[in-house]
Structures are given as structure tokens and as C-alpha cells.
Design brief:
homodimer, 479 residues, alpha+beta, BirA Bifunctional Protein, domain 2, Rossmann fold, 3 domains, 5-stranded mixed beta sheet, 14 helices
């Protein structure tokens, strides 16, 4: 833990949301700026959080039959040119190496913005017959997209993610895979990160460059902007066709396979911060928190009775798998509380002479600040229950906010009023096309976040054109 | 598991060592070539091995008080120029981005070959007083060094590693840290990977660019060449000085801190392959093996009694933490054996009608090919014992080979004879300097691998100059 961050003051969220966000990150030791434009340094508390996300989501990815691989970071530029819409989407964001050892490269090497192209070359070699399918792989990697405006975790030139890539014999199987992984993301984000979210499809305009369908997991931040937490794409067979990923079909002819890709990135840490943190600093959702419980000894560095109880409680909690740390800073109790609070640790247990005498521990909840005194017998179960209660409470708060700030609109005027009144997410009927989406973006800075799988209402008419609604959509500003 | 690798033939090691090495890699599904020069694709079996190494070594790094961080991959070229010997060492190997969004960069961005420079900028910001020390961090990352000749795992343009970086108040503390991490590597490599190794110091010529002392862990491959498995550097205070990493010393004056760095890379997978694999394919050391036991059902896809026993044994093994997989390929038993053998799985358990009738399982050891029949009662303990036995057997074989191929030399003629007779590692007295090291490299393709911590003999005179020996050294060709 960095002592130098202890005295860091956090700007209140109501005063300046952007500054609050960056202050929370610095005060909690999540990330720091680097001198490389748009690249950040992920500090120990942020890295521990990402490692936990990696382990938990990784276990789900493995359990659904995917194997990890690692592909080269550098991809020949010529690969990107094979799929027209793909290069169109990514060309402006590519960083390239044009010379090596003083020699100009005929085919420059790009820092991967995503790995479809290099992975499909590999698939093409591995797939000959139907027996070679499906191939289901995943990669944890750093990727690079040259961005003009950057924001820690949310939009950086380099970021970390996992990208899953699969190839299937049939469209049906590939679509089922893309939907399944979308659902895995939704559950992971809700069940582990306590972020309520909405699953749906993207409109053609908002799809991944080259995808036939993009399934998205969207959440609404307290700022009123939506954040895309993860996406899963059904890429059809065109991508595979462009890279010669084919297999012998029923009639003996070569047919391109059907592919999917899906990813979740360090961006999710931005969603965790914005959803749960407060003016006192970070709030880690208990199930994913790198440290779930901090034990703070009250002025007892030399008090053997206090130290013995600290060790006993620590061992009791650790024995049931609770991630616990003892504060060994030797600071006075107020500073200990302050430090662990900013870092977002869900529960702080204080143990001093009062507690030793009474055979109790005093527990402070990070989310509510509430204090509870627990007797030592079965303390591990009570602490586990408090962690679970905090998870449900955080999820409930966020779900309440999402409901409060979602509004049904039937006309363009409704959107204008809703925006003025601070609503964030607008449910509407839709019969528009790309031109209407461009207008929404230009005039209202909003986009269609998704066509939700389970619309909250069904509106008969398009709020823009007045035509009978072709589908139900959710509209919002977004990060 | 890739069905397309099943029929892959492995060139015998005695016929062509280089081809054997590459064949083992392909047949075992460890890695594949990519079209990007010098970059490889790490396949599922190789990636699972690296993930296990990451978890096990990572736990040791955490237990010794280090925290994970992630720094940017791109480092401004100007950073490298601050430490003269460092830029001298790395300049030829740097890959650079010279333009972004069409604009020429004044300060090009380098793909990190190692991260001291960017990490020291961060240290400089974090360290003011002695209370901020030590800082002890670790990073799992991909790094890039432009190489002219490449070999899978051993020498690639992009590779994966962990790099530890620490800053301390005193030289004593920093040296102790560098030595401790060297010792952690030695133990990890010997205890988990079953590779016997020698720890020692590098000569000035062989040190890391800019280091005051480099501690190395060397092993001898069956080819007769040494392989540097991991290194740990005491960097003195010059590196810190060049980057302004200072703290207020005893007299109130600013003093540069003392730093260390230490790393182990995917290169270690090359060492595992060469040390343990044979003409039948990969041999995974049991303690690190991603899959420790494969259960092969003998012709029993529809036989409920066989399937029930397969599940029961699988659950019994998994319950004590053994990493077990059931072969679900439906292939005939010979092909199942062949596939898992190539992949290097330590134990193969067959279960067919014979086994169901007798209440036994038949176990085949990967290293010796030996078969044992085990009764079901307490099978998990017997399997665990067989895994341990295989670990010790692999380590013993490799240690025997190391001893057999180490020779004491007292003259240059001894070296020539020893090389001709196929010895690999030469223990010698040394009083030479850089000129003599250059001669050894040019005439005999050998280098001083290290000045061992525990020399096997003490030779009074330098084998080259005849002068009284200043130190004892180990000389070898190397990867």
C-alpha cells in the first residue's frame, strides 16, 4: 500500500464527475498516468483486481470448453486488408512498425487492435474436415488502438483484454456460441461485479467492423452515460472466407466456416469504479475484491493479546477462503481506516483492548459505513454473510438507479425533456435507419445502445419517424 | 487436443537434434510458427504449461512480498538513452513506432525489450523518503527483441516473461534481494520443473546491460549446450541515479536508491522440452504438468460400467487436487495412448472391461513406459505417489547427465579434448579478462556461463593463462 496516497483528497462527485473519477483511481492505487500519451500504469490494487477478474472469468471460459492460446502481438498490415469492412474500421487506429534493423518493411507490422486476422490464418491451417470443428480458443492479451482522447481504463491506447475466437461448421452453432458467451458475460458482470446490465443486439451501424451480429452487454453509469461492458460477435462466414478458413461440407465441396469472437477488457474496471465508488474512494464489489477484509489492530503493535487475536481471526477467515490482510503499517487507527476505505476493501475489522476484553470484533462496512460488533464464535460465517449482504446491497442500489434513470419515450420531444431532466437510458420504438442514427448522434450525442433481448416495454411506433416500430431500442449517451 | 497432430512423426533426437526439438513442439501442440518473422503462436498445451508456471512462480513472488503491476508496452526512445550501457546493450534489438496517425514522432516509441526505464520513472515519483522504501513489484508481460536467428521458445522476437523490479535504501538490502530471487528461481526450476541447475555470478562481459552484478541460473541441456534459465541483477545505484530515483539519506541529502531486477521467460519451456522430452514426444514434469493424468476408456463409449468407473476414478483423483482429464475422442486405445504420450502427460490410466471386472486400473508412466496395475482402494494416493516418483526420477536422470557431461579442465588442450569427446560443461580455474573471454568465444564458441556459488572443485591455476586462479568458472557453449 502506498503511503504517499494516504493524504490524497478526492473531489466530490457532485462537484466534478470527471475529476472525481480520476481522483478515486489515484487515491485507491488503481492506476497512474505514464508519459506515453494514452498509456497508463496499472498499480497494485488495480492489477490485483484485474488478476481476480482474469481468474474468475477465465474459469468460466475454460468451463465452457475454450482453451487459452497466445498469438503474436505484431500482425502484418496486409492481413487487415483482406476483410474490407475490418480494415475500414481499424485503419485509423493502427500503430505500425515500418522499419526493423534499419530496413524498411514492405509489409509493415501492426500492433494488434484485435486478433481475428492472425488467428484466422492459424485456423486455416488447422481446419480441413468437419472433424476439426469446432475450434474454441481464448487469449489474454494487450491490444493497441490509437485514440485521440483518452480516459483511464475507459479509453486508452493500450489496454488488456481477453478475446475469444471460435470456428464452427454451422451458422446455428456459431450463433449459439456468440449468444452463450454474451450470457456468460452478463452473469459474470452481475454476479461477480454487482453491476446490473442489459443484453441485446447492436444495430448495423454500431456493430464490430465486419460482424454480422454484435451482442452487447450495456450498463448505465451514475453519470447518466451508458457503458458497453462486453461484446460477443457472430461474424458469419465472410471473415472465414476472406482468410480461407474452409472445411469440406456435405457435398464434398469446400465451404467457409462460421466464426465468432467475444471480448471483455480492462474497461470493465472503469465500470466497477463508476458504479460503486463514492466520495470516500473506491468500493470493491465483495465477490471480486482482491482483499475482502482488512484487520486493523488498534494501537496494539506491542500488545501481545491484541496481536494474538489478530492472528487468530485472520486464520479463521483465511481458512474458509476469505481474502484477508492485516494492516501492519503501525499507523494510528484513524489513518488505517482512511487508507483501506479509499482502497475499497469491503469490510474493516478493528481489534483493540475493548475487543480483546469482550471477545468480539468490530466490523465496518465499506458501502454504508455501518458498524457491527460480532462475537468470535463462528466469526468467519458472519463475515462471509456480511460480504454477501454487501454484494446484494451494491447490486440493488445500482439496479434501483438504473430503473430510476430509464425512461420511455414516444416522441423526440420526450427525449429532449428526459435529457434535460437527467434521465440516462431511453426505451423507444424504432423504425429508423442509419440516417436517423446519425441525426441522433449529431443532435443529441446519443446512440442506440442496443435492441434489448427483453424490452421493458413494447412501444407501437418509432419515436422519430412515427412509423410502426420495427424493433424496440435503448438510446443513451455513452463512454 | 488437435487431431491433426496425431499422425505427426518425430525425427529421432540422435538423427537431428534441431529437427527433433521442433518436431516435439509441433507434435505436442506446444507452439506453431506464425508468418511474422521470429514470432510464434503458443498453442493450448504450451499455453497451459506457461499458465501453470505463471501461477506457481507467481505465488512464490507474492509470498516474498512483491506486488503485480502492469506498465506500458511502449517506451519513449529517449528513456533508453539515459543509461549509457543500457542503450548500448539494447539499441540493436529495439523495434520502434516512428509515426502515429500520420505524424512523425519526435521521440519514437519502442516496444519494451525490458522495463527498467519506464518503471524507474514511476519509482522516481513514488519515492521521497526512506519510509517509501523498499518498493517491490513484479510484472507479467510480453517483451520484444529483434533477433536475427530465432528458435521456438529459446530465441524469439516476442516472448513472455515476468520481470521483478525493486528499489532499496541500502546496497546490502538490494544485494540480498537479488540473491534471494536467484535462489527462488533455482528452487522453482529444480523443485517444480525437475531441472537440475547451477547458480552463480556472471563475468562483467556477460552481465545484463548496466548491471553491477548478474546472478544466473544455468542448466546443461542433453545437446551439450548450457541454457540460462533465469537471471537476477543487482543494478547498483547508477541506474537509479540516471532516472532520478532518489531518497533523503541519513544526512538530509538526496541519494540514489539501490535497485534490482530479475526475470524468467517462456525460454524455460525450451529448457523443459530439451531436458525431459524423448523420441516419443513431450514429457511434462509431473508437478507442473497442466494435465497430470489422462484416463483412457478402452472401447467403452457405450459401456455404462466402464463409463461409471471412469467417472468415479476421475472424481477420486480430482478430489485430492490431481489434474485429470478423460479422453473423450472415442478413438481406439492405441491412438489414445499415442496422442497423450506425445503431449507429455505423466500418467495414462486405462479402464476397460478387464479393469472393471478386476476392480483395478492400469497405469502407464510417461517417462519409462512402465505399466502398473493398481487396485481402486486409495487409488488417488497411489497415483499421487507415482507422480512424485516420476518427478524424482526425471530430476535424477537429468542430474546424472549433468554430472556425466561436466569435466574439469586444467589446460586449453583439456577443453579441446573434452569438446571432441562430447562433454558439455567445463569447470576451470580463471585469471583471464575480457580479451580471453573473446578468444574463447571466437575459437571455441564457448562463454563463461558463471562463477558458481558452490564450485564442484577448486583448481589452483587458470587453464588459459596458467596464472593463479582468481576464481572458479564454468565454461560451455550455450543457447
Amino acid at each position: 500500500m502506498s503511503s504517499s496516497n494516504i493524504n490524497f483528497r478526492i473531489t466530490p462527485r457532485a462537484v466534478d464527475h470527471g475529476q472525481w473519477y480520476q481522483d478515486v483511481i489515484r487515491a485507491a492505487g488503481l492506476a497512474a498516468y505514464s508519459e506515453v500519451p494514452g498509456c497508463m500504469i496499472i498499480e497494485p490494487n488495480g492489477c490485483a483486481l484485474w488478476n481476480r477478474i482474469r481468474n474468475c472469468l477465465g474459469a468460466r471460459i475454460e468451463a465452457t470448453g475454450h482453451e487459452d492460446m497466445m498469438f503474436p502481438t505484431l500482425i502484418p498490415y496486409s492481413y487487415f486488408k483482406r476483410e474490407e469492412r475490418h480494415i475500414e474500421g481499424f485503419a485509423p487506429e493502427l500503430a505500425m512498425i515500418e522499419r526493423l534493423r534499419g530496413k524498411v518493411l514492405e509489409d509493415p507490422l501492426c500492433l494488434r487492435p484485435t486478433s481475428e486476422t492472425v488467428i484466422y490464418r492459424y485456423f486455416a491451417e488447422r481446419i480441413q474436415t468437419r472433424a476439426d470443428l469446432p475450434i474454441m480458443i481464448n487469449q489474454w492479451a494487450n491490444v493497441f488502438r490509437v485514440e485521440q482522447r483518452t480516459l483511464p481504463f475507459l479509453r486508452t491506447m493500450e489496454f488488456h483484454w481477453q478475446e475469444g475466437h471460435t470456428a464452427h461448421f454451422s451458422e446455428e452453432e456459431a450463433r449459439a456460441e456468440a449468444l452463450l458467451m454474451g450470457e456468460e458475460y452478463r452473469r459474470f458482470i452481475q454476479d461477480e461485479l454487482a453491476i446490473p446490465c442489459i443484453s441485446g443486439r447492436k444495430t448495423p451501424r454500431e456493430r464490430f467492423a465486419g460482424a454480422v451480429d454484435t451482442y452487447t452487454i450495456e450498463s448505465l453509469m451514475p453519470s447518466g452515460k451508458a457503458l458497453q461492458c462486453a461484446t460477443s460477435h457472430y461474424l458469419g462466414s465472410e471473415f472465414a472466407g476472406a482468410f480461407g478458413v474452409q472445411c469440406i461440407g456435405a457435398g464434398g465441396a469446400l465451404m467457409p466456416v462460421h466464426t465468432t469472437s467475444w471480448g471483455m477488457s480492462t474497461r470493465i474496471i472503469g465500470a466497477i469504479i463508476m458504479t460503486h465508488a463514492d466520495d470516500r474512494g473506491m468500493v470493491m464489489p465483495p465477490r471480486i475484491a482482491p482483499v475482502q477484509v482488512a484487520i486493523l489492530p488498534v494501537g496494539g503493535a506491542d500488545d501481545e493479546a491484541i496481536q494474538a487475536m489478530v492472528r487468530a481471526v485472520r486464520d479463521q477467515l483465511a481458512a474458509v477462503g476469505i481474502r484477508v490482510r492485516v494492516d501492519v503499517s503501525g499507523e494510528r487507527i484513524g489513518r488505517q481506516h482512511y487508507a483501506w476505505e479509499k482502497r475499497g476493501v469491503p469490510l474493516r475489522l478493528t481489534i483493540g483492548r475493548t475487543e480483546v476484553a469482550a471477545g468480539t470484533v468490530t466490523v465496518t462496512r465499506r458501502d454504508t459505513g455501518e458498524k457491527v460488533v460480532l462475537s468470535l464464535a463462528g466469526v468467519e460465517e458472519k463475515v462471509a454473510a456480511l460480504l454477501e449482504a454487501q454484494h446484494h446491497s451494491l447490486l440493488g442500489c445500482a439496479a434501483g438507479r438504473l430503473a430510476d434513470r430509464t425512461r420511455t419515450i414516444e416522441t423526440l420531444a420526450d427525449l429532449e425533456v428526459g435529457q434535460a431532466e437527467g434521465a440516462g437510458l431511453f426505451a423507444a420504438g424504432w423504425a429508423g435507419g442509419e440516417a436517423e442514427e446519425v441525426m441522433l448522434k449529431e443532435r443529441f450525442e446519443t446512440t442506440i445502445r442496443c435492441i434489448p433481448d427483453r424490452p421493458c416495454v413494447t412501444l407501437p411506433r418509432c419515436f422519430l419517424t412515427g412509423q410502426p416500430a420495427r424493433e424496440q431500442v435503448l438510446i443513451a449517451k455513452s463512454y
